[in-house]
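Q: Can I see a sequence and its folded structure?
A: Here is a first one.
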Amino acid sequence: MADYLDDLRLAHVLADAADAATMDRFKALDLKVETKPDMTPVSEADKAAEELIRGHLARARPRDSVHGEEFGAQGTGPRRWVVDPIDGTKNYVRGVPVWATLIALTEAQEGGYQPVVGLVSAPALGRRWWAVQDHGAFTGRSLTSASRLHVSQVSTLSDASFAYSSLSGWEEQGRLDGFLDLTREVWRTRAYGDFWPYMMVAEGSVDICAEPELSLWDMAANAIIVTEAGGTFTGLDGHPGPHSGNAAASNGRLHDELLGYLNQRY
């Protein structure tokens, strides 16, 4: 972990600053919310949290580039921080506590930029998860108070818990029939949404999850946490990592079956 320990510590500092900013405005009656060109909401808290993170990075890692949801890409180089200041903005603006700040450090490797550090902080849930490449995934209040994450050992779909976000995206992509077939095959389904299903896969409380349309900042931190917990994270095309525009995550044992159902065509 030595190579990235300082980066992991910095990610915790960034998350602490973002948590303070986002919790300060959570459930605020005067919270300002706008609609972006893609018709998704953005709050003043999204922008403030990303600006805080970018400011910290400019001082602590001036040579690194940053790619964030609200303010795009800045800088070039072999190291790139990927930031989603509030994943779950719709929950945030409605007072639902399921939202998080996602922070990942990606590094140029064979096959493109790959996550080497990932952190997900959900302050309204009182939870935080993180991982470093080749050194495992953890959850806890801090680096010194943490427990290691491990995916489940469930090996049959009939015993599996399947988490997802919504039905609409699957229908738009013509994948709804396969999705519904999968829901009939598994033991349990729940629409937790956003970052949370991936963290539950990493913890072993959920066995498979998937989403049909995502951006890099939605996936970079989740991907390394799932894989470092012993799971598998790919696009629906089966390509490893967070670069396919969608995601499938599992404990590894069920991954081929998960992809098989979600790629069915009728």
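Q: Show me another, different protein.
A: A second, unrelated one:
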Amino acid sequence: MISWLINKKPDEVNSQEIVSLLRDPSTDTTKALSEYARAIAERSFGRKIFLRGLIEISNYCANDCYYCGIRRSNTQLIRYRLSSEEILLQCDEGHSIGFHTFVLQGGEDHYWRGERLVKLIQTIRRRYPEVAITLSLGEMEPHEYQDLYNAGANRYLLRHETHNVTHYSLLHPPGMSLSHRLASLAALQRIGFQTGTGIMVGSPKQTIEHMAEDLIFIRDFNPAMIGVGPFLPHSATPFAQKAKGSLELTLRFLALCRIFCPTAMIPATTAMATLHPEGRIRAILSGCNVVMPNLSPMSHRKDYSLYDHKASLGAESAEGVTLLKKELEKIGYSIDWGRGDAPL
């Protein structure tokens, strides 16, 4: 069924062939892509799943993206911003559990930029010299990225969301541009960060052709990390009534990401677990090799509301690692407590 794909190098697959794989209605195609992607992941990493401790440091955001629950215009949201002391406390808790990667994620909050953020990174690096520090804090200027890298940050995730200019303008307000987003990604990679990008599958007005364009960009950019999940609507956004992304289509996209980028670190995202009870497990069985349990303070987890009904308890939480371990064992996988750096 996909034997032609198996016999091709990733850079030999063209846009129309990608479109045909994504558009094929057969569940057998999804199964075949998942099995092939899983085999590739196992060759690169074995049956190991790497953990990242996710700390959502702020839900303030200067941007007003139409799809995002923490957008600037959402006046229904209870805003919060963790202090340095609170963030370090969560790092201490995560380290005691066994995490060797911390992911600091937040909106584009100008409070958490510049010298204050640099000092925080330096403190984490001194306290835990062996851990990896990942940031996902949006667009900044190249000199800011350089300062963060010099301070000890290792990785940066900045999803491009869509590689199509017209589609980008339908998801974001005037003043935000795809060209600036791509320039930021190029700067991060040039500086030396293990750089990640990705999209939402099923975002409003997205076409299969857009997704093929995204896959070609991801393949050619060759990111160290790929963050992909389904679009999930938030009730306080202009897209509140839009349909959720498809589980099957997201699994195909994830599988193709693994096929095109064999050594990338690809999370089975919280959005997958929110979309479907078996979403995370099916993502792992489609080539994903990372899970990011939530290490944020319990009192604020519901406030980091990118979309409605976000999963943050049970196996999605740092406290639920034992439950996660059991879930992975059922499908023949185990946790790797190392840093989980993407191979060069």
